């Protein structure tokens, strides 16, 4: 199944701007086992194409604002596909990480010595992309490369079968694989993405995998990728017993706002960047960097903003705005993170009976220390409230399904208990927020005033 | 999409539809074929997931079918019943024009750019999520056959509730893509290969993942893979994920999945009273079956509770059936309100209303016990003594313990009350609790049907 191996023709003609605005101290490096960062001159042994530096692309081509609608459309399409979050053709702002990983690979490949490395970092920080890029560079040097995403495995145990079939072995047992890796002439590079999925009882599988490189005559280079920073410390404390089994650690920090800015600008051609206000990109970069530093999210927000702009263009022909600006970006971010508070402005209100239930819940928890109410008790409160307000009330089974609907709209949370009537319900919002969501201050205050 | 134009087109088509119905009723098979392969699952089979889909009362679908088979011209009321069934395909989705345009633009631009992406659609049951997506796909299929710039695409779907296990999704997707049958793990392997290889000839794929929350397994690998494939450079996979929960990506999914899912979200809000009224009226174009006030009542009633269109249609359909039984040709307020009564009334209250003499005394004793102790739980022993004192105070003979026990077990088997026999206690100390609210029991007892002796 060679198709699993990376086949992207990563073109490297475009170059990387110098990482800017990042201090060495920011870098989270675990002190042990960190290979000293290479001097820039020591890169020649492996034939990595020399990386030219480019000045950070400047957004100065704003003057040509397209007037024809057709032209506008194609530019927008281009902008949208530019922001598509698939693997990039070249990496930005990951120079140090690339150097680190490159040095690791280089060291072990050249001297035919086995080794293990654990790469960690939050989602969307370029872990897999870095690996793919480097593997593409060295694919012709005679080593066997296996890339597996552990998420596709049905059980952790099936990893051995997978590896065996990738190596072209007939039997998928562990013994056969060990035999192969201790007798092979070529170096074998095994890259496992989302390695934390191999979590099993006693961490047997992970231990075995990380011990393979330290077997006598082993020729395996193992690279594991996952999100948690301390996977090796937390799950695999025993690895520390032998200094030579301890894997190298490489940590990908979240992107900073300047880095995200550079990534976004890099994606745009002069033509497409004329469609987007640089302030909007700036805003998006700041927002994302403050929350996660996830490049995928930044790209997606920009793409959505372009889409929003497009739909606005379509609806209002004589639109004054001819650029994607901050308001588009902020609307997209609000849509997702604003939650229910925001949605009240966009959508119609929720049905009356559900409002009544939410109000009853507020009434039942008001002035009490515990914020959750058993479902049975909430029902009797609700019935009393309805009677006070001279409104119809629903039967209990109906009531239960209504509460479930409120949960689906993330207005309440239900802690499920043994009996339906003992489920604990609690409200997500304070009184003022609730009034905003329900868009019905009158009803809420009537319920709260009259009580039950 | 120009909505005014769409509406005009719809009304024309709907007017035509009354002729089509004749054929449809005579040969149901033909009708099904005409709907095309996409609409086949629109009227989904009963699922345990929501009360919405269960419909209220299980009633044999068209009692009128017999007369229709007898080559008589179908009555308007029968035509109306067919149209009000959730599985009958509306010519156009009413009141969801904005959402339609939104999904349509998203998929269309992805198709033109020939890359992948995913959109997450949420909304409570019966708000037209799945129907709108089907509508979009049909619209785009039609458009792609005319328009050169829009490539042909494959539309496939998986429904989390139709799968025995999340991993079965791989099997189902592979089968729809290539026709191969394989076990779950084999299918996953082939799909990884399928989406990782570059194949210029392959047409883009639009995958509808319905009931996404049911596709979540323990490590959420199924949804991870779905979204991961969309970001493969050459996969050309567009995933449309549907679920009820609004904040599922934030609440349930791990960060690596929500990072891949991205920000393309769309929420379907419950139908308002106006929407529901328009939907029912649109289905009834060309028929004089409902009084306008009756439709309004249904719309108001449903909009105040759930805004679930399936339920509105259910009530209307039941109302036509009631009218038919009574020999009326026009459905008025009376029929509608009795249909609402039927569909909304709880079976437990009905059980109390029609309970026997001893059961009534037992429930009364139970409530009296709750009120005096101000607790919601009592024992069989206490209830027995209170029930006997109630009986004697009204001039009846007291009952033996055995008799009362049999009353209690009957009520328990109907789940009006719950009995908890804990450990090694004797039966007389077992705890009793009501399975419905006290108000409902009192309401049922007050309106109880008089006993005949």
From TrEMBL, chain A:
Q: Does the keyword Kinase apply?
A: no
| Major site of localization recorded for this protein | nucleus
GO terms for molecular function, please? ATP hydrolysis activity; DNA replication origin binding
Q: Which GO terms describe its biological process?
A: cell division; DNA replication initiation; mitotic DNA replication checkpoint signaling
Any single Gene Ontology cellular-component annotation: nucleus
Cellular location(s): Nucleus
Q: Tell me the InterPro entries matching this sequence.
A: AAA+_ATPase, AAA_22, Cdc6/18, Cdc6_C, Cdc6_ORC1-like_ATPase_lid, ORC1/CDC6, P-loop_NTPase, WH-like_DNA-bd_sf
Where does the AAA+ ATPase domain lie?
Answer: 113-256
Q: Tell me, what does this protein do in biology?
A: Involved in the initiation of DNA replication. Also participates in checkpoint controls that ensure DNA replication is completed before mitosis is initiated.
User: What is the name of the protein in this document?
Assistant: Cell division control protein
From TrEMBL, chain B:
The coiled-coil segments of this chain are none
Record's subcellular location:
Nucleus
Q: Which domain of life is it from?
A: Eukaryota
One of the GO BP terms on file: mitotic DNA replication checkpoint signaling
Q: Which residues are in the AAA+ ATPase domain?
A: 115-267
Which SMART domains does this UniProt record tie to the protein? AAA
- Which GO MF terms are attached to this record? ATP binding; ATP hydrolysis activity; DNA replication origin binding; metal ion binding
Transmembrane domains' residue ranges = none
* Positions of the UniProt region annotated as Disordered: 26-56
Q: Which GO terms describe its cellular component?
A: nuclear origin of replication recognition complex
Could you list this entry's UniProt keywords, alphabetically sorted.
ATP-binding, DNA replication, DNA-binding, Magnesium, Metal-binding, Nucleotide-binding, Nucleus
- Identify its protein family: Belongs to the ORC1 family.
The UniProt subunit note reads as follows: ORC is composed of six subunits.
Per the entry, what this protein does is: Component of the origin recognition complex (ORC) that binds origins of replication. DNA-binding is ATP-dependent, however specific DNA sequences that define origins of replication have not been identified so far. ORC is required to assemble the pre-replication complex necessary to initiate DNA replication.
Q: What is this protein called?
A: Origin recognition complex subunit 1
Q: What is the lineage of its organism?
A: Eukaryota, Metazoa, Porifera, Demospongiae, Heteroscleromorpha
């Amino acid at each position: 199944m060679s198709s699993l191996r990376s086949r992207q023709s990563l073109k490297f003609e475009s170059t990387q701007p110098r990482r800017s605005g990042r201090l060495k101290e920011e870098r989270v490096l675990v002190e042990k086992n960190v290979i000293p960062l290479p001097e820039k001159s020591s890169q020649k042994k492996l034939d990595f194409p020399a990386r030219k530096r480019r000045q950070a692309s400047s957004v100065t081509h704003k003057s040509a604002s397209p007037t024809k609608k057709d032209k506008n459309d194609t530019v927008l399409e281009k902008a949208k596909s530019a922001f598509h979050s698939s693997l990039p053709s070249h990496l930005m702002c990951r120079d140090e990480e690339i150097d680190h990983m490159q040095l690791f690979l280089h060291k072990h490949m050249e001297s035919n010595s086995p080794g293990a490395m654990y790469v960690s970092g939050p989602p969307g920080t370029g872990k897999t992309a870095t690996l793919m890029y480097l593997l593409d560079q060295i694919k012709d040097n005679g080593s066997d490369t296996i890339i597996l995403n552990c998420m596709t495995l049905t059980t952790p145990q099936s990893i051995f079968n997978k590896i065996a079939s990738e190596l072209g072995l007939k039997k998928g047992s562990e013994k056969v694989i060990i035999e192969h890796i201790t007798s092979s002439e070529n170096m074998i590079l095994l890259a496992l993405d989302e390695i934390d999925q191999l979590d099993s009882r006693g961490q047997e599988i992970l231990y075995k995998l990380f011990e393979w490189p330290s077997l006598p005559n082993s020729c395996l280079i193992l690279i594991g990728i996952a999100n948690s920073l301390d996977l090796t410390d937390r799950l695999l404390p025993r690895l520390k017993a032998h200094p030579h089994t301890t894997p190298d650690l490489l940590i990908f920090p979240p992107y900073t706002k300047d880095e995200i800015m550079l990534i976004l600008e890099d994606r745009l051609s002069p033509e497409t960047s004329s469609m987007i206000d640089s302030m909007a990109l700036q805003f998006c970069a700041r927002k994302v960097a403050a929350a996660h530093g996830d490049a995928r999210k930044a790209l997606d927000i920009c793409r959505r903003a372009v889409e929003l702009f497009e739909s606005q263009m379509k609806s209002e022909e004589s639109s004054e705005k001819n650029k994607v600006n901050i308001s588009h970006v902020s609307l997209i971010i609000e849509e997702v993170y604003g939650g229910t508070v925001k949605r009240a402005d966009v959508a119609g209100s929720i049905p009356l009976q559900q409002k009544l239930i939410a109000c009853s819940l507020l009434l039942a928890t008001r002035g009490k220390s515990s914020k959750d109410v058993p479902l049975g008790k909430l029902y009797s409160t609700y019935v009393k409230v309805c009677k006070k307000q001279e409104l119809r009330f629903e039967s209990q089974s109906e009531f239960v399904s209504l509460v479930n609907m409120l949960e689906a709209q993330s207005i309440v949370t239900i802690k499920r208990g043994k009996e339906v009537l003992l489920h604990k319900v609690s409200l997500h919002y304070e009184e003022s927020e609730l009034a905003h969501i329900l868009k019905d201050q009158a009803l809420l205050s009537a319920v709260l005033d009259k009580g039950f | 999409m120009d909505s005014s134009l769409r509406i005009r087109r719809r009304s024309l088509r709907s007017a035509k539809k009354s002729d089509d119905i004749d054929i449809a009723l005579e040969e149901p098979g033909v009708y099904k074929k005409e709907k095309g392969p996409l609409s086949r699952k629109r009227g989904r089979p009963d699922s345990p997931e929501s009360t919405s889909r269960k419909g209220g009362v299980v009633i044999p679908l068209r009692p009128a079918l017999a007369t229709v088979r007898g080559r008589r011209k179908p009555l308007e009321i029968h035509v109306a019943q067919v149209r009000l069934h959730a599985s009958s395909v509306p010519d156009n989705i009413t009141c969801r024009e904005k959402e339609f345009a939104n999904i349509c633009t998203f998929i269309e631009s992805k198709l033109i750019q020939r890359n992948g992406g995913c959109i997450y659609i949420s909304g409570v049951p019966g708000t037209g999520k799945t129907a709108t997506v089907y509508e979009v796909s049909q619209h785009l299929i039609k458009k792609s056959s005319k328009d050169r710039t829009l490539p042909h695409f494959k539309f496939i779907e998986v429904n989390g509730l139709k799968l025995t296990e999340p991993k079965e999704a791989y099997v189902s997707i592979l089968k729809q893509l290539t026709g191969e049958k394989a076990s779950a793990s084999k299918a996953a392997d082939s799909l990884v290969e399928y989406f990782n290889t570059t194949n210029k000839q392959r047409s883009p794929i639009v995958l509808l993942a319905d009931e996404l929350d049911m596709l979540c397994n323990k490590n959420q690998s199924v949804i991870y893979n779905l979204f991961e494939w969309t970001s493969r450079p050459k996969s050309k996979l567009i995933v449309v994920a549907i679920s009820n929960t609004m904040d599922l990506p934030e609440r349930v999914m791990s960060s690596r999945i929500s990072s891949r899912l991205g920000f393309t979200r769309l929420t379907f809000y419950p139908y308002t009273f106006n929407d529901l009224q328009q939907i029912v009226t649109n289905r009834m174009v060309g028929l004089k079956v409902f009084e306008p006030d009756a439709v309004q009542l249904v719309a108001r009633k449903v909009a105040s509770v759930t805004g679930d269109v399936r339920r509105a249609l259910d009530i209307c359909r039941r109302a036509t059936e009631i009218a038919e039984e009574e020999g009326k040709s026009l459905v008025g307020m009376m029929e509608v309100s009795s249909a609402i009564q039927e569909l909304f009334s709880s079976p437990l209250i009905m059980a109390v209303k029609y309970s026997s003499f001893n059961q009534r005394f037992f429930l009364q004793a139970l409530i009296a016990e709750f009120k005096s102790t101000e607790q919601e739980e009592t024992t069989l022993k206490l209830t027995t003594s209170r029930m006997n004192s109630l009986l004697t105070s009204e001039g009846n003979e007291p009952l033996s313990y055995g008799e009362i026990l049999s009353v209690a077990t009957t009520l328990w088997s109907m789940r009006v009350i719950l009995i908890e026999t804990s450990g090694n206690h004797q039966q007389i100390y077992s705890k009793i609790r009501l399975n419905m609210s006290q108000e409902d029991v009192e309401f049922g007892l007050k309106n109880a049907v008089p006993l005949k002796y």
